[in-house]
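Researcher: Let's walk through a ligand-bound prediction step by step. First, I give you the protein sequence. Second, the SMILES string for nicotinamide-adenine-dinucleotide. Third, you return the three-dimensional complex as C-alpha cells. Ready?
Model: Ready.
Researcher: Here are steps one and two:
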Amino acid sequence: MQSSETPILITGVAGFIGHAMAAALLSDGRGIVGLDNLNAYYDPALKHARLARLREHEKFAFHRLDLTDEPGMQALFGAHEFRRVVHLAAQAGVRYSIEAPGQYLSSNIAGLTVLLECCARHGVQHLLYASSSSVYGDTEQMPFAEKDAADRPRSVYAATKRAGELLAYAYARIHGLPSTGMRYFTVYGPWGRPDMAAMTFADDLLAGRPLKVFGDGRQRRAFTYIDDAVKATLAILERGAPAGRPPAALYNIGSDQDAELLEFIRILAGEMQCGCEIEFQPEPAGEMRATLPDTSAMRRDFGFEARVGLKQGLREFARWFREYSQQAVREPELRA
Ligand SMILES: NC(=O)c1ccc[n+]([C@@H]2O[C@H](COP(=O)([O-])OP(=O)(O)OC[C@H]3O[C@@H](n4cnc5c(N)ncnc54)[C@H](O)[C@@H]3O)[C@@H](O)[C@H]2O)c1
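Model: Step three, the predicted complex:
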C-alpha cells in the first residue's frame, strides 16, 4: 500500500482543531482513523456533535481511547498501518493548569510518550503534533521566533507543551522518528472551544450578561482563524517529514496581525449585534501579555500566510455560534 493510501491517525479528533483537520482531509477523500477519550474538561455534547459530522463520511472510523492506555494504543497501531499521525489530543488551557496540573502531566507528557513509542515501533514516517505559543513564556523578544530558547514557561500547560517538543526531539534523535511540532497561536472559529475567549464572550453576549475580562483587556493576541490553522497543518502534512538530522522541526502557526482583547470583543459584539458591558477582573497568573509569531519560516518553507482577518473570522464564528446555541437549546426540549 502507498503511504498516501493508508489511513491518517488524528488524535483529539473530537476536539476543536482535530475535528476541523479531520473534516478537511475527509472532504478530500482521505481515510481517517480518529481517537479521543471524550473527557469532560468542557461539555462532551459539543465533542459528540463534532463527531456526528465526521461520521457522515464513509472513510471515518472512531476509537474512544485514552493516550495513556498503552495496550489499547499498541493494539490500535497494530491494527492499522499508520504512516502519518496528526497528534492534537492534549489537556489544553492555561488557567485550568493551575487547578489540575496532574491532568496536564498525564495527557501531555505520559500520553505523548505512549504515542511516541507507538509511532517509533510501528514505522510512522511523519508525526505532526500540536505545541503552543505559550512555550515562549517570559520573554521580551517579539515577535516570537522558533529559534528562541523558550525555556521560561509561565504555566504548567506551557511547561508540558515545551516538554512535549523536547520528547519529540529525543525520539527523532534516538529512533529517527520524523516529527514536526506546530506552535499554534490562539485559534478561534466555528466549532471552537468553550473555555476560550470567542465562545465565553459570545455566550455572555447572547445571554445579556456582562463580559468578564481578566486584566485590563489590553493584552494582545495573534488571533488565528481555524481555516488558516488547518491550511498550515495540511501544508506540513502534504510536504512530508523534515529533512534535518535529527528529523525534527518546529513552526509557528499564527496570524501576524495581532489585536487587543478589547478590539476582539468590540468586533465580536458588533457581529453578534449585541450590546456589551465589561466587568474587569484581576489578571490571573500564567497569562501572557502579548503573543505575536514570527511567521517567516512558514512563509519560506510552505508559502503559507494566514489570510482571514478578525472581522471576517468573527462573522463566520458568530453565525455558527447563533445556530449552534439555538440547536443546543432545542435538543433537550426535543428529548423531553
Ligand atoms: N485552540 C488553540 O487556540 C490552541 C492554541 C495552542 C495550542 N493548541 C493545542 O492544539 C491541540 C488541539 O487543541 P484544541 O483547541 O482542539 O483542544 P480541544 O480540547 O478541543 O481538543 C483536544 C481533544 O483531545 C482529547 N483528549 C485530551 N486528553 C486526551 C487523552 N489523554 N487521550 C485521548 N484524548 C484526549 C479531548 O477530549 C479533546 O477532544 C492541543 O494540543 C492544544 O494544546 C490549541
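Researcher: And what stands out?
Model: The longest strand covers residues 126-132. The CA atoms of residues 12 and 88 lie 5 Å apart.
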